[in-house]
Specification:
alpha/beta; binds nicotinamide-adenine-dinucleotide
Length: 322
């Protein structure tokens, strides 16, 4: 199949491109490189540097059977600072992707929502029905979701919405204003610096490895039961930020305690996915936290810190495909 990925230069999009290419598909990659990195885009991708808000997007999607729409402004604290740009990219941009896909005759759109849609929920594990967004980022995902449903209702477009929990693995975006905890801890510890924990470290997160997320992405290509449905993609278990600190410290061989700073606004105390809907299709998260953390660490050693001579253990072998 010819398949387009928006956000192909980002964390999940670039890993998805690898998987689709390995499965024999042709990949058209869309990204404006606002947050993504060109070097992360696999060489076989037919890359088009274009903004998802560009009205000529339909021309880029010609001949594509499926679009994975992943491009977004997605750092919650950045979104809080600029609700207008958040809406522009995540709502108007998403509508433009749906409109372009419809014009181009794309058969199906699989698009990224987020566990942030459950920010106000107190139900754990959280089922797909418990939508209660609070932050500007989450509200922008809710609006994108409403437009997607309207495209399905009025144009019969086949859509699948995916609510990722905390996805981790190689190429996780460590450059964000507030980087995801795992890569932030790894980079600091490998440099011999004390990582920061915002709040007390008791917040619990449901972490899911990007390989498991991609298993579900591939399933969406062939399983018609995914049409018109929404799925939580998490591991169905959760760990505290302190647990993650201890695990990463043990892997790196780092003995210092964290630095604590005040809590960040707008962050849930606990996330935990109810993954029964995804499981009912035969999907199961397979990557244990220990194995997943090693793959993320290997990537950071090989690609982020390779040139830093102060990196602890920089001489250790790194995974060739990371
Ligand atoms: N990573 C997670 O844990 C997580 C959790 C929940 C939801 N999500 C969602 O999954 C999707 C992918 O997340 P990610 O972690 O890979 O993010 P990422 O920031 O690594 O990648 C997003 C990509 O989108 C591109 N992009 C942003 N604005 C664009 C625009 N206007 N036009 C074209 N390209 C643009 C960026 O340059 C970047 O390459 C996002 O929609 C995000 O909201 C991710």
């Amino acid at each position: 199949m010819k398949i387009a990925i928006t956000g192909v230069a980002g964390f999940i999009g670039s890993n998805l491109a690898d998987r689709l290419i390995a499965a024999g598909h042709d990949v058209v990659g869309i990204d404006n490189l606002a947050y993504g990195v060109r070097e992360q885009i696999p060489a076989q991708v037919d890359f088009r540097e274009i903004d998802i808000r560009d009205r000529s997007l339909a021309g880029q999607l010609a001949g594509c059977a499926v679009v994975f729409h992943l491009a977004a402004k997605n750092c919650i604290s950045d979104c809080q600072l600029d609700p207008i740009e958040t809406s522009d990219i995540n709502v108007t941009g998403t509508v433009n992707v749906f409109a372009a896909a419809q014009t181009a005759g794309v058969g199906k759109i699989v698009y990224a929502e987020s566990s942030a849609l459950y920010e106000g929920s107190t139900t754990l594990p959280t089922p797909e029905a418990d939508v209660s967004p609070e932050s500007f980022y989450a509200v922008s995902k809710l609006a994108g979701m409403a437009f997607a449903e309207a495209y399905r209702r009025f144009f019969g477009m086949r859509t699948t919405a995916l609510r990722y929990f905390c996805v981790y693995g190689p190429r996780q975006d460590y450059r964000r204003t507030v980087p995801p905890v795992m890569s932030a801890f790894m980079i600091k510890m490998l440099r011999g610096e004390r990582p920061t924990i915002y709040g007390s470290g008791t917040k619990r997160r449901d972490f899911i490895h990007v390989d498991d997320v991609n298993d579900f992405h591939l399933r969406c290509l062939t399983d018609e039961r995914t049409d018109g449905n929404v799925y939580n993609l998490g591991s169905g278990t959760n760990d505290s930020v302190r647990d993650i600190y201890a695990k990463v410290a043990a892997l790196v061989g780092f003995g210092e305690p964290p630095e604590f700073r005040p809590d960040l606004p707008g962050e849930a105390q606990e996330t935990l996915a109810d993954i029964s809907a995804a499981r009912a299709l035969g999907w199961e998260p397979k990557t244990s936290l220990d194995v997943g953390l090693r793959s993320a660490l290997d990537y950071i050693r090989a690609h982020v810190l390779a040139s830093e001579s102060t990196a602890i253990g920089a001489g250790r072998p790194a995974r060739a495909d990371a």
